[in-house]
């Protein structure tokens, strides 16, 4: 442990702890935009700068570690510096969140009392569209903090996104200018979740004026596999339909990370074609509603007929990706001991 001074108070921190984390533990909020606890220290936007006694210039709290005897100030002239930085970022941030996602920059501007400056007509960046149906990107809502790029590299271990262009024409695009569908991207939406301005957003929410904060939130467990990722279902307050799925960093075991199914594959819940009762095909060749008892009896009779005529190896079992590990275990038990076949598989990657 080391002792240091924070705004005149003597406090302690773990040796080598980042200033932004140590300050937060002691109740002092330091604004950040390019920082994400999942990512390596970056210090790109400089929004988190603090005065450190003896340092020749303000230091980024998200990339500077606490040392014994350090004297840190987070107010005074630093606040003016943050206002200036916010105004400069707003000059490049031409659009609000296209999909109603949270916007940390706009929230910070409101807190600091900063108004958006006058925008020059030629300040707009070249528009970008992608043929994938899940995620969109608005360059004019982007502040080039590179959180999304670093997330793909450091967390997902792939090169799905990169920075393109120079100066005011810079923007973030899938690597080599390809579609998201043609890169290493798995469409997990992690880049979307880490974006501080909502420049990357859910395409199905594009154009909505409803902020995410207006949605109801229900915490639950994703049912797509046996990992047990914790998710938040965002519900429309009126219809109670699921609008989007998010997750928080403090949730275990996924720490806020989701796969493409967990984040985007929720439309089946309210789909008009979703089956809500068992169906059995009648002699007319059509499916007809029936009871669970009759449906199970019909399925058992059909399996027995195939086994009697062609042997147990003529039967295969494919279990759903939405089953738990325990349920998948029961499926293979039924296949091997009940029917006598080893032809059993689950499309679940885990």
Task: Describe it.
A hairpin with a 5-residue loop joins strand 13 (about 280) and strand 14 (about 285-290). Helix 2 (about 75-90) packs across helix 3 (about 105-110). The radius of gyration is 26 Å and the shape is elongated. With about 350 residues, the chain is α+β, with helices and mostly antiparallel strands. It has helices spanning about 20-25, 75-90, 105-110, 145-155, 190-195, 260-265, 290-310, 325-340, and strands at about 1-5, 10-15, 50, 60, 70-75, 135, 160-165, 170-175, 200, 215-220, 230-235, 240-245, 280, 285-290, 315-320, 345. It folds into five domains: about 1-75, Ubiquitin-like (UB roll) (Roll), CATH 3.10.20; about 95-105 and about 115-215, Alpha-Beta Plaits (2-Layer Sandwich); about 215-270, Single Sheet (N-terminal domain of TfIIb), CATH 2.20.25; about 275-310, no CATH class; about 310-350, no CATH class. It has eight helices and 16 strands. The strands form six sheets. The protein has a five-stranded mixed sheet, sandwiched between helices. The protein has a three-stranded antiparallel sheet with strand order 10-11-12.
Set down the secondary structure blueprint.
Blueprint: E1 2-6, E2 9-13, H1 19-25, E3 49-52, E4 59-60, E5 71-73, H2 77-92, H3 104-112, E6 135-137, H4 147-154, E7 161-164, E8 171-174, H5 190-194, E9 200-202, E10 216-221, E11 230-235, E12 242-246, H6 260-264, E13 279-281, E14 287-289, H7 292-310, E15 317-319, H8 325-339, E16 344-346
Parallel strand pairs: 1-5, 15-16
Antiparallel strand pairs: 1-2, 3-4, 3-5, 6-9, 7-8, 10-11, 11-12, 13-14
